[in-house]
Design a protein that fits this description.
By secondary structure, this protein is of the alpha/beta class. The protein is built from 14 helices and 18 strands. The N and C termini lie far apart (49 Å). 45% of the residues are buried.
Length: 440
């Protein structure tokens, strides 16, 4: 029995792929989840979205390779978006990597790992469409929280993004397949389901001729055992009244929307191949809050896109102050090869891009502090994620917090609690993006 260790990087969609590969390996008789020092093979499931992600992936590949010198490791295998994007260049330019596997070959991972351990090093790249969207998985995170990937690939073709080249055209799963997996997850103990795709609001367009996200969310809400259902990556121009009414109506749908807006200036948005402007985006925010008054809104922004002027950046800053998003991440523009934006005139220096991103985050920090202050002396439901031995208290997430990207709440309790339990916590203080409280 060979032993395999895996490091998975990047977004939740990539995590789902990693979990499917772990299932294939276990079914083939491998021992999985072992420490890297004991592993016969180490898989690095990479992200290749922006430059920082690529750097992180390369760093992890090189760290894994050290175990070929010091541990039991006989092969380092690279999977995921970086592998799909650069293919043979990975093993040619990083000789420490033994095998590179494209996403279309994930289903053959057990055989590929065996061959690599036994010295038969051969890269493998199946067609992108061969990635099995209905593959069984072994959850890699908390047993009570799981992602449900409802589609793969993207048809939006934003000029800064390489995902369509990496992942291909959008492929939606059927409603029946999504519901079937969600029921299995619920039976296994999952109570929080997080719906993801590159663009969840486009779900179903390729197979049904129109978005079926509202219908899917309605059906998911009927599944026994699920308590929270959260939706990420909803594009602003595709958020319909039907979707908002569904979120407002269904109790299990947490009142939370993640909307990757990227910018507010109409000229910059047009160059990004995105739609809208400051006025239409503010109108959307107001409409959402009117229909769902207690909703938490999250967005992501990009600063320093080619030709962004100081005036356009100032407009973005004012937009952030006016929209007052509950959650916000801002990133300096990353030049990605083989994208339209990479060839645009007016490329901005790295320091200016970084300074602008940091300024937006400073603006958002003040907004987040004010919004958290408003929560003091109120009660909230909390999903318990763990116990902090250092400060002697439990911590978890509220309905307003998605895993990894948002804050947490730390709270005291007079009695032991169960990880994965839902409890009510009284908020009595804040800590920048986080909350402090006590069990109600």
């Amino acid at each position: 029995m060979y032993k395999v260790s895996m490091v998975s990087l990047g977004c939740p969609k990539n995590q789902v792929d990693a979990e499917a590969m772990l299932y294939s390996l276990k079914e083939a008789g491998y021992e999985i989840g072992v420490p890297e020092a004991e592993a016969d093979a180490i898989i690095v499931n990479t992200c290749g979205f922006i430059e920082d992600a690529k750097s992180e992936a390369i760093e992890n590949i090189l760290e894994a390779a050290e175990y070929k010198k010091e541990g039991n490791c006989k092969a380092v295998i690279v999977t995921g978006c970086l592998a799909e994007r650069y293919k043979d260049d990975i093993t040619e330019e990083i000789p420490e990597a033994d095998v590179c596997v494209g996403i279309g070959s994930n289903r053959n991972i057990a055989e590929i790992v065996k061959n690599a351990i036994e010295g038969k090093e051969e890269n493998s790249y199946g067609e992108k469409s061969e990635l099995d969207l209905n593959a069984k998985r072994i959850l890699g995170g908390y047993p009570f929280s799981a992602y449900l990937k409802i589609a793969d690939g993207c048809d939006n073709c934003c000029t800064y993004c390489a995902i369509p080249k990496i992942r291909g055209r959008m492929r939606s799963r059927t409603i029946e397949d999504c519901i079937s997996e969600a029921k299995e997850l619920a039976l296994s103990g999952v109570t929080e389901l997080i719906v993801v795709a590159q663009d969840t609001t486009a779900y179903g367009v390729d197979i049904y001729g129109e978005s079926k996200l509202p219908e899917l969310l309605t059906e998911l809400s009927k599944i026994d055992g699920l308590h929270w259902i959260r939706t990420l990556y909803t594009y602003p121009e595709k958020i319909t009244d039907k979707l908002l009414d569904t979120i407002a109506r269904e109790e299990k749908l947490v009142k939370y929307l993640d909307i990757p807006i990227q910018h507010s200036n109409s000229e910059i948005l047009k160059k990004m191949n995105r739609k809208g402007d400051k006025q239409s985006l503010l109108a959307l925010v107001e409409k959402i809050r009117t229909k769902i008054p207690n909703i938490t809104l999250r967005t992501t922004l990009i600063t320093g896109f080619p030709s962004e002027t100081e005036e356009q950046f100032s407009e973005l800053d004012e937009f952030v102050k006016t929209a007052r998003f509950d959650r916000l991440g801002c990133f300096p523009y990353s030049v990605e090869e083989d994208t339209i934006a990479a060839e645009m005139d007016g490329q901005i220096d790295a320091q200016t891009k970084q300074d602008r991103a940091e300024h937006i985050m400073e603006t958002q920090l003040e907004i987040a502090r004010e919004k958290n202050q408003e929560k003091i002396d109120t009660d909230t439901e909390v999903l318990i994620e763990g116990y902090d031995d250092y400060i002697k208290c439990y911590f978890g997430r509220t309905p307003s917090d998605a895993p990894e990207v948002d804050g947490k709440i730390f709270f005291l309790t007079p009695r032991p609690l169960v990880i994965g339990e839902y409890v009510t916590v009284h908020i009595n203080d804040t800590l920048e993006y986080d909350l402090l409280g006590e069990l109600k």
